[in-house]
Amino acid sequence: MTFTNGEEAAVELTDVVPFLIEDEFQRLGGHYEKGPDWAPFVVEDGKLITGQNPASSEGVAQALVAQVK
Q: Which Gene3D superfamilies match (predicted)?
């Protein structure tokens, strides 16, 4: 799970974590997608499955189960 910059700011961690995933991923040329803050958001790219935040856990689990069937 990762968090958007907005989610990190909402819990006042922007100055605590060593870097913000959203910023770093974009800086390195990655394709970054996000949904609304705190909403479930899951992305599948081949065998890679990722979720935006803990609210995405169920969706990530469902995607994983679908891939291993």
A: 3.40.50.880
